[in-house]
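Page header: ASSEMBLY MODEL / two components / 732 residues total.
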Amino acid sequence: MHTDLCERFGIQYPIFAFTPSEHVAAAVSRAGGLGVLGCVRFNDPAELDKTLDWLDANTDGKPYGVDVVMPMKVPTEGTSTDLKSYIPADHISFVERTLQQLGVPPLPEGEGREGVLGWLHSVARSHVDIALSHRPVLIANALGSPPVDVINQAHEAGVLVAALAGAAKHAQSHVTNGVDIIIAQGYEAGGHTGEIASMVLTPEIVDAVGPNVPVLGAGGIGRGRQVAASLALGAQGVWTGSVWLTTAEYQNLNTNKGMTEAFLRATSADTVRTKVYTGKPARLLKTKWTEAWAAEDAPSPLPMPLQNLLVADAHNRMNAHGDPDVISMPVGQIVGTMNEVRPVADVMADLVAEFEATVDRLDKIR
Amino acid sequence: MHTDLCERFGIQYPIFAFTPSEHVAAAVSRAGGLGVLGCVRFNDPAELDKTLDWLDANTDGKPYGVDVVMPMKVPTEGTSTDLKSYIPADHISFVERTLQQLGVPPLPEGEGREGVLGWLHSVARSHVDIALSHRPVLIANALGSPPVDVINQAHEAGVLVAALAGAAKHAQSHVTNGVDIIIAQGYEAGGHTGEIASMVLTPEIVDAVGPNVPVLGAGGIGRGRQVAASLALGAQGVWTGSVWLTTAEYQNLNTNKGMTEAFLRATSADTVRTKVYTGKPARLLKTKWTEAWAAEDAPSPLPMPLQNLLVADAHNRMNAHGDPDVISMPVGQIVGTMNEVRPVADVMADLVAEFEATVDRLDKIR
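Prediction written out in full:
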């Protein structure tokens, strides 16, 4: 499994692994893929700095990337306290009422209630600045093209830029802005995603950006057959995320054991594409929490970044509570095949072996 | 491109083409695939009989199949006139008002107003009886497993039975009923479809039914790269539909030239999964008609078979009118790459050539 992207990044397999866990990212990079650390959870730049120090020291010199969340147009922005004044009282009382109905208690006195600030542009920019003081080979942006000056900043540091796209025209506009690599994020993916499924989206984006822009297939990829399918569709590599949430290494970050149980038992039908996580459509695990927001009397989700500020405290409370029925977490349709907790190296080895067996099989069909 | 299914059906390529047009079906079978004639449009069994006579005479002795629309549980059923008494007046006035607003005139005096009766179980059964008096090699059912006695009837005639499934558990239950071949119908497909995309659904169904039950990948397949991807996912063949709607041969059936224009200009984002066609979720071209049903003041679609009876006359009126903005037609997300009217043989040749090029490319990646 060797494409031009492997040369470009000095990696063995064109398997890119998005993860909020530095332990998963390091293990993927050590196993020959490219671990990409999600930065959105780092409110404190110093903590990201420290985590990247750890990554520098624990990847055996192998390359890694970082992922930020940054809209291309810089929004007018206040502090998180200012922004909270825009949240309607009805929304706040709906969240509180829902948590009560679902049996989720308040956090113990003194435990942190701060939301995730990484959705704020100024914080995402600080993530880029911190990251560039380390040795990432890639900065990926979950919201499409970053602002052009951020792309230039990365390029000056010799770092490539990848951006998610859910439609061919968005991919073309990312390339115009200077983005190097497009992540074709299909409908079946976890997190922010569009309506076009990978089977249609990947070749469409490959054709739209032309042969000089590598495309990573994303959405529905957790097995070697899916890696082979994505490369068959014209991708030069795959962008994976969900499949790492049930690895042994992820348990270092995940203190909510209910979440792992919820992933292990979920079928591919147990996800839902909804705006309740951030205000933009994102695929989440379908639970009593998402069902409550889908009820007829539920308020409409607020626009980004207000929705995440609204639910951030609820997320902390649900995580502390640990009920597998009451989870708020992005995950793709591939969750149906995430049925045991395994080390990252085993998942990587299976991806590669099944890919090779698949190409052998196709070779015989020809 | 040769799998066990080719031996089983005596075909050159495991490319199955669902189409309401006998001209398309014959051309696909002549070009080495398996043309599968959709029967739902035949209200008059004698007309189906005549059409199958034509197919028998125009396939150069090559095999073909038929497709019926039949729920597994036989519903209580009246005549179409009886059933119409269950349609609320508000629904009827909404349809009439919408057609007026969209500028669709009534049909000229004397033109047929009859709905599509193929959705009725008794009519679908007559399709099976007629078909078995010809030489189909396959009966496929768009609504999953047909009733067990219909499966037995087909088997006694030496005809294999295929059934659509949008979830692994449905596929398993089809197999228990005696269905021979599963069509894994992904979210991106046109017509009746579930929420799980092909990338996830196909391998899930392949694993669920085991190695002795062949699976056809369906949804998002219109190019050779997609055929290769589907076979990589474990399918033994592909089930295609939308891609034949812009063939030259289809124009024999399609008297609505606005429809072809609408397909040619549509992007992959211009479809919508909605219940407005039959009462069950089906992917249609997104037009002013589907948008009207999505408006806040629109009524909820009725259950099958009432919804199709409700809109059947509207479909006839829209087809006679020919406005590409006002179309009611199932089509998959692959419509974005259907950009010219071409002969069936050319589409087939491209599918095969691109498949082979894709396997060559994967071989080099390994």
